[in-house]
Design brief:
The complex is a heterodimer of chains A (288) and B (368). Chain A has 9 helices and 14 strands. In chain A, the strands form 2 sheets. In chain A, strands 3-4-2-1-5-6-7 form a 7-stranded mixed beta sheet, sandwiched between helices. Chain A has a 7-stranded mixed beta sheet with strand order 9-8-11-10-12-13-14, with helices on both faces. The longest helix of chain A has 13 residues. By secondary structure, chain A is α/β, with parallel strands linked by helices. Chain A starts with 9 loop residues before the first strand and ends with a helix. In chain B, 33% of the residues lie in helices and 27% in strands. Chain B has 10 helices and 19 strands. In chain B, strands 1, 8, 9, 10, 11, 12 and 13 form a 7-stranded antiparallel beta sheet that branches. In chain B, helix 6 packs across helix 10, helix 7 packs across helix 8 and helix 8 runs parallel beside helix 9. Chain B is elongated. Classes of the chains: A alpha/beta (288), B alpha+beta (368). At the A-B interface, helix 4 and helix 5 of A face helix 6 and strand 16 of B.
């Protein structure tokens, strides 16, 4: 098993004919993802790597049975794209787009809930279940099939950690990039609950960072509901207050969101913390 | 983007929220249109200006001149005062606190109010702060407003006026893509009516394109940070002396943390993002050089981005323009061996692990 995505996901890519779209459709197909359609308004009839392009998501769903969308459109069109996907019956939406105004994200996050859909992102690198499917822009080469679940707020740092797991022969059930924005659809808590319920996942790795209280919320949740071992790394221990550290969500504001607070919460929840990103693999190896 | 108080108040005025009669004062010669007594307020994008001496009252012209020259040009926590707002004094019956902010966990706007305004909200006990969350799909409704207003201990007419302000700032919060709208204090005047004596308005940077009427103001950035922003490079100046270039915000932060473990201190956070475009890499290095770090630490993980492509960009900058500080590199991932060869060839130090690279960078920088 795996969480959120597997071989049953039939993917439509919104923003299929741009540079990113074309490149990543190729990468996903090579990984084994069932990319069945692309959408770019006005480009119906074209093909990208043999995948048919439609004018809108509704047509793509009707023609191909797509049930999952990957949103790669520019920030100012992202709200429209996510709403369109949800209204066309798509049940899993993975939003890669960065710099979406958070008021837009707030609206589509709640609309996704109302539609009973899984929304990953925005500002997510995507999600991969090795051996099954990869939906997003994560590099396919870093993964290995296995039993560790990974949920993270960042991109490259996660690749680094997943790659170090792979180098030790530790595979992953699913690696989900939750996104670096302040407002995201799927949270650590959602990922933890789903990993807990997944028979294949034996341990969970969380990659957090400064800003907000998602890690503190997760820590409380772990104490109460999660029986599987959890490992974590927190980035930004030395970040100054009031500065946005690259991600829109990575900011210590009004004393809230420090790494110290998150580390303390995880320690209290008996989560094993790594000092350096690559140490996570050692901790997981020791445990297993 | 944080707006200065006076610009926040311009927005309040636009939404029909009363503010004191006042204006920016350019120099000590012209206080026309202002009735004594009034208050002179330093315009800085940071709290605590009152304690720092940035707010002074004036009963007469002499006092106004004297206090104006004290405030104009003063330094408040690293911000030089370049604008001073003069506002007529108002007789206060009661001070309240009111704000709308973003609750990241609930993913909703959060309205906060307290009957104890005028002080730092963090010093008000939780039991005296009242919260209402607004699901953005339904927007603000009367029950939200009633839920807050009924707890503030107000007289009936006062409550009605405060209710109007809440619905107005919610409208402002949504229409201007705000991260924060705060009125502290919102006052009940002695002669009735409510008025906003202060304003804190932050607009989401990512939504600025929707608000062409808001002149961007990069007062919070250093000159090099401004330059970087215009070039679209994530670049933040910090207190230390090691310049960190990495790809991805999380990895860049983790690199800074690793330095701290070995008693080194990052002086620059530079996130290359997903780019391996030689032009961007060159711009990034040029910016880094201007920040004059003692050591540069390049930490790359190649996934989709290929390490050797970035390395080629780095090499071409260094061979073309030279570099006058040591550069420690740590490369991992896609095409790392080719990248290491290119960087060695350019005369850079290649370390094997993050720890090794962080230790060597910190040693070379000699602490801070």
């Amino acid at each position: 098993m795996s969480i959120f995505v597997d071989e049953k996901n039939k993917v439509v890519v919104q923003g299929a004919t741009g540079h990113q779209g074309v490149f990543h459709i190729g990468e996903m197909l090579a990984f084994g993802t069932k990319v069945v359609a692309g959408v770019t308004p006005g480009k119906a009839g074209q093909e990208v790597h043999g995948v048919p392009v439609f004018n809108n998501v509704g047509d793509a769903v009707d023609e191909t049975g797509a049930n999952t969308s990957l949103v790669l459109v520019p920030a100012r069109f992202a709200k429209d794209a996510v709403f369109e996907a949800l209204d066309s019956g798509i049940k899993t939406v993975v939003t890669i787009t960065e710099n979406i105004p958070f008021h837009d994200a707030m609206e589509f996050v709640h609309y996704a809930k109302y539609k009973d859909a899984v929304l990953i992102g925005p500002n997510s690198p995507g999600i991969a279940s090795p051996g099954k499917s990869k939906i997003g822009i994560l590099p396919g080469s870093i993964f290995l099939e296995g039993n560790v679940g990974v949920a993270s707020r960042s991109g490259t740092l996660t690749y680094e950690i997943v790659n170090s797991l792979k180098e030790k022969g530790i595979g992953q059930s699913t690696c989900v990039g939750l996104g670096g924005d302040p407002i995201i659809g799927t949270t650590f808590i959602d990922a933890l609950d789903t990993f807990e319920a997944d028979k294949e996942t034996k341990a969970v790795v969380l990659v957090g960072e400064i800003g907000g209280t998602a890690e503190e919320d997760a820590a409380e949740h772990i104490t109460e509901y999660i029986s599987k071992p959890v490992f974590a790394f927190i980035a930004g221990r030395t970040a100054p207050s009031g500065k946005r550290m690259g991600h829109a969500g990575a900011i210590i504001a009004r004393g809230k969101g420090t790494a110290a607070s998150k580390i303390k919460a995880f320690e209290k929840a008996d989560v094993k913390l790594a000092k350096f990103p690559t140490d996570i693999a050692d901790l997981v190896e020791e445990y297993s | 983007m944080k707006l200065f108080e006076y610009r926040g108040k311009e927005l309040f005025d636009k939404y029909g929220i009363a503010v004191p009669n006042g204006r920016l004062v350019k120099d000590e010669k012209d206080f026309s249109g202002l009735n004594f007594p009034f208050v002179l307020k330093a315009q800085v994008p940071i709290g605590g200006r009152g304690k720092a001496g940035g707010i002074k009252s004036a009963e007469n012209l002499n006092e106004a001149k004297e206090n104006f020259s004290k405030i104009m040009g003063m330094d408040i926590k690293g911000h030089t005062v370049r604008k001073v707002l003069a506002e007529e004094k108002v007789d206060i019956k009661k001070e309240l606190y009111l704000s709308i902010t973003l609750d990241r966990s609930k993913r909703m706007p959060l309205i906060m109010a307290s009957g104890e305004g005028g002080m730092d909200i963090e010093s008000v006990p939780d039991g005296k702060i009242f919260n209402e969350w607004v699901n953005p799909l339904i927007g603000i409704q009367s029950f939200h407003i009633r839920g807050i207003v009924s707890k503030l201990g107000l007289e009936k007419e006062e409550g009605k006026e405060v209710a109007k302000v809440i619905s107005k700032i919610y409208k402002l919060f949504r229409e201007y893509d705000c991260e924060l709208v705060e009125i502290n204090p919102l006052i009940i005047k002695k002669d009735g009516g409510v008025m906003a004596l202060d304003s804190k308005v932050n607009i989401n940077d990512d939504a600025m394109y929707r608000h062409p009427d808001i002149e961007p103001e990069l007062v919070e950035l250093t000159p090099l940070e401004k330059d970087a922003k215009e070039k679209g490079i994530a670049f933040i100046q910090l207190d230390g002396n090691i310049g960190v270039i990495a790809n991805g915000a999380g990895l860049t932060m983790a690199t800074l943390d690793a330095l701290a473990h070995f008693k080194g201190a990052g002086g620059v956070f530079l996130d290359l993002g997903g780019t391996d475009d030689p032009e961007k890499v060159m711009q990034a290095f040029e910016l880094m050089k201007k920040a004059k770090p003692k050591v540069i630490f390049l930490n790359l993980f190649g996934g989709i981005t290929k390490c050797d492509t970035v390395a080629k960009g780095v090499k071409s900058v260094i061979t073309k323009e030279g570099i006058d500080c040591p550069v420690i590199t740590r490369i991992k991932g896609m095409n790392e061996d080719a990248a290491k060869e290119i960087l060695k060839d350019a005369g850079l130090i290649t370390a094997t692990t993050l720890q090794d690279a962080a230790r060597r960078s910190s040693d070379l920088a000699g602490g801070t």
